[in-house]
Amino acid sequence: DKAKVWDTIQKEFKCCGVSNYTEWKPQFENSTTQVVPASCCKSTSNCNGTEADINADKIYKEGCLTKFETFVKDNVFIIGGVGIGLAFVQIIGILFAFCLARALRKEYEVV
């Protein structure tokens, strides 16, 4: 479910919306009080994503895109290291496959 994914992202990165919290307002047009999801709230107590919560600074106002960009920039070496590690494991697998194919070919030539 998309809503659960967004809730998780907004809670983990402490953000609201892609660019900022105002992007959620059209989604809650039919609501009489709520204007952003509860996952935008800084604290789960006494916050429901209402206009009053926004005015009282109870929600995250920064967008998730900038938070995610910062996360990637801060962890670029870890992400790159994991990528290089996975590539190395695949190369080792290819080498073992070649060795196995070569051993099988030699075995058939003997018989």
UniProtKB/TrEMBL annotation:
<protein>
    <submittedName>
        <fullName>Tetraspanin</fullName>
    </submittedName>
</protein>
<keyword id="KW-0472">Membrane</keyword>
<dbReference type="GO" id="GO:0005886">
    <property type="term" value="C:plasma membrane"/>
</dbReference>
<dbReference type="InterPro" id="IPR008952">
    <property type="entry name" value="Tetraspanin_EC2_sf"/>
</dbReference>
<keyword id="KW-0812">Transmembrane</keyword>
<keyword id="KW-1133">Transmembrane helix</keyword>
<feature type="transmembrane region" description="Helical">
    <location>
        <begin position="76"/>
        <end position="101"/>
    </location>
</feature>
<dbReference type="InterPro" id="IPR018499">
    <property type="entry name" value="Tetraspanin/Peripherin"/>
</dbReference>
<dbReference type="Pfam" id="PF00335">
    <property type="entry name" value="Tetraspanin"/>
</dbReference>
